[in-house]
Design brief:
Layout lengths: L23 E2 L2 E2 L3 E2 L5 E2 L9 E7 L10 H6 L23 E3 L5 E3 L6 E2 L6 E2 L2 E2 L5 E7 L8 H13 L8 E4 H4 L13 H8 L16
Parallel strand pairs: 3-7, 5-11, 5-12, 6-11
Antiparallel strand pairs: 1-2, 4-8, 6-7, 9-10
Helix pairs in contact: 2-4
Length: 213
């Protein structure tokens, strides 16, 4: 019996072709620039790690390429550098990955560890999505579109995650924290991601059949 918040149970998505496992060094992804964050902790024992949560972020909102997201995730942001930062002063957060507008990929937390990206959340009948998810941030603004280079990097990363983790679901931050979060927003092309990955439709939010707005 499923609950109101529980998604279908599609089982793990297909694993990459043989030989792709060498993209991992433990929980660190070979093709990402490593920038370790202090904001992480251990996952609960026997965490499934079967969910990818897609986010969007830019600091200040709508400004790209200044390295401020990296500073936020490593507790190095100058809180006095912009008026917007007054509202997030002292915030300690992280994601496993961050994809810049040009497609460059950063990793802040070992995927075997629990990053602090989803906050209060629930999906596929489970609460506390940080416990068993991989958080991927796209540089962007809620409601706006994303760059082809970002989709290319996201596709490659998502395609490699099942070689190490039993990925069965992909969702947006807005799906795991509805009413509280709106990212990545209606500008994110779920149909494109699904078509690129060729994963079962049950692995994606229902809105993945809709065109971006």
């Amino acid at each position: 019996m499923t609950t109101a918040n529980e998604a279908p149970r599609p089982g793990p998505v297909p694993k990459p072709e043989a030989g792709e496992g060498d993209v991992w060094n433990g929980g660190w992804y070979r093709d990402a620039t490593r920038e370790p964050s202090p904001n992480f902790g251990p996952r609960p024992a026997h965490a499934a790690i079967d969910l990818i949560v897609v986010h969007s972020i830019s600091l200040p909102p709508g400004e790209y390429g200044g390295g401020q997201v990296q500073r936020l995730f490593t507790n190095a942001l100058d809180w006095d550098a912009h008026p917007y930062y007054a509202g997030i002063r002292g915030l300690q957060v992280s994601a496993h990955f961050f994809i810049e507008r040009d497609g460059r990929l950063w990793q802040f937390v070992d995927c075997d560890q629990r990053a602090w990206h989803a906050g209060p959340s629930s999906y596929r009948g489970r609460a506390n999505c940080n416990d068993d998810s991989i958080g991927i941030e796209l540089e962007g603004l809620e409601g706006q579109t994303f760059e082809p280079a970002q989709y290319a990097t996201l596709n490659r990363l998502c395609a490699h995650l099942p070689s190490r983790y039993p990925i069965a679901h992909v969702a947006g931050h807005e799906d795991v924290a509805p009413g509280r979060k709106q990212d990545p927003g209606p500008g994110f092309d779920w149909r494109r991601l699904q078509a690129d990955l060729q994963w079962p439709s049950a692995a994606f939010p229902q809105k993945s059949t809709q065109a971006p707005r």
